[in-house]
Amino acid sequence: MRRRRLLCSLLLVTAAGTATAAAPPPAAAAPAATPLDRVVPAPAAVHPGGDPYTLGDRTTIRVPGGGAEARQVAGYLAGLLRPATGFSLPVTTRSGSDGIVLKIGGKDTAKLGAEGYRLESGPRSVTVRAARPAGLFHGVQTLRQLLPPSVERRTEQPGAWRIAGGTVTDTPRYGYRAAMLDVSRHFFGVRQVKRYIDQLALYKLNTLHLHLSDDQGWRIAIDSWPKLTSHGGSTQVGGGRGGFFTKADYREIVKYAASRYLTVVPEIDMPGHTNAALSSYAELNCDGKAPPLYTGTDVGFSSFCVPKKKTYDFVDDVVRELAAMTPGRYLHIGGDEAHSTSHDDYVAFMDKVQPVVAKYGKTAIGWHQLAGAHPAKGTVAQYWGYDATSADERKEVTEAAAHGTRLIISPADRSYLDMKYDKNTPLGLAWAGYVSVRRSYDWNPATYLPGVPEKGVLGVEAPLWTETLSTSAQLEYMAFPRLPGIAELGWSPASSHDWDRYRARLAAQGPRWDAMGIGYYRSPEVPWPGRS
Ligand code: ACM
Question: Any idea where the Beta-hexosaminidase bacterial type N-terminal domain is (predicted)?
Fold first, then answer.
């Protein structure tokens, strides 16, 4: 039965003539173990050697004396591997030197920091060690990628389930490695956000930035201002139904993200990008009149009323309620494209709002225009400029960085996942130009803005704006294969940066995405293997 399915798929591949890179293996051959240096993001240090480990139906997952978090990571790993392998993979806290072993602490793990891990693979066992549970989780993602791509399928598959022998010692380059999802232009529900979180986790990202409000929709319940969601969340770009997260939904996302070692950064974009809020409450408008809801895609036409006291009552309530359900340290206050706010008003508004974020125990992040106002001590600026950004605007950002404002680097013509790949891309926008897979990978976050001190870069982010995207399949077509490149810029040492080697590793991810049901863009820049 299994054999026939395999044979059928081989025939299909041959018939379709897609197997250009390498001849398909004979039907009876077990898939070769993935070499340790095929992992994305590239690990910091790889020492291949020795015999592989082979998972079998007697393999156990050991968390010797493991605490709740280590046990949870073990349970997650078992859940990933059971469907395709068909093995029971029991999780046990009993120690032993065989099977898959997940361990917190011991044997030099302090050097691995908050997120690093060491994976040692040999004929008797695969051991992942880390100082902290996040490191164990990232190590598990490496272990997962070392197994054949068919391990991602949710029905039983033929093995063999081999993990190449050797050692991987791995720590991240940056502590902030994010993806942003715009749930305002089009709304994406809890299930869709969880699906995206799972995809981010595979590439060791640790932050999910949710763009929760914009002109087209307000997507997070705020009890003290209920019309924000009942009215402001009722539509989206194109006039569809929209939607919003209840507080329970939001908490569920935060919890799910935490189980994948991602922190949620919520964004309320202001003082511009606020039509949905202005439409929900007339008193937030300088003229006291609520504008209609907006379902187009223009930007820069809305502004909170900066001189009005009511505006700050509103901001205080929103930040208080949002901060109370957000365990992470950051709260994003937007601040981009405030074209309908005078510069003086913009500065006055940001001067008032940053202390509100601090009052509720959070650190503010703002889009980089905040650098042209007065970034408060500790505030982080997110650079989203591109090659056409003026020297003056860049200078504001680099000067702020020289004065201690830390930066998240997300250049629109490099890391925006909603930019078209080329002129034929059916989805997405092109205002920052086309962003090919190479263009999105082949740059250096540390030197992208000359003059920014090394410590000034907190990390990288890949934003995904959704003016043209309304389904998970569409998100995935734009994110894959570019998202892993941004993840690699955030995780891997600069010394490993090499387009030719990267695209070979990226190509090997294609069959994994096929197995996961991710419909990625088969960019001609990447030597994809034939489909199986
Ligand atoms: C942005 O793309 N307006 C931050």
Answer: 38-170
Q: Output phi, psi for 525, to 5 deg.
A: -75, -10
Domain 178-362+410-446+460-496 in this protein, CATH class: alpha beta
pTM above 0.90, yes or no: yes
Mutate to test the pocket of ligand 1, among 267, 299, 336, 383 (most ligand atoms within 8 A of CB): 336
pLDDT for residue 531: 62
Among protein residues, the one whose CA lies closest to atom 2 of ligand 1: 384
Please give the pLDDT value at position 469: 98
At how many degrees (to 10) do helices 190-202 and 472-479 cross? 20
Residues with CB under 6 A from ligand 1: 336-337, 367, 384
Q: So what's the pLDDT on residue 530?
A: 79
User: Would you kindly state where each structural domain of the chain is located, as residue ranges?
Assistant: 45-170, 178-362+410-446+460-496
Active-site residue numbers?
337
Residue to mutate, 180, 389, 417, 465, ligand 1, most ligand atoms under 8 Å from C-beta: 465
In the prediction, which pLDDT does 108 show? 86
State which residues of the chain have pLDDT below 70: 1-32, 531-532
> CA-to-CA distance for 421 and 433, rounded, in angstroms?
9
CATH superfamily, region 45-170: Chitobiase/beta-hexosaminidase domain 2-like (3.30.379.10)
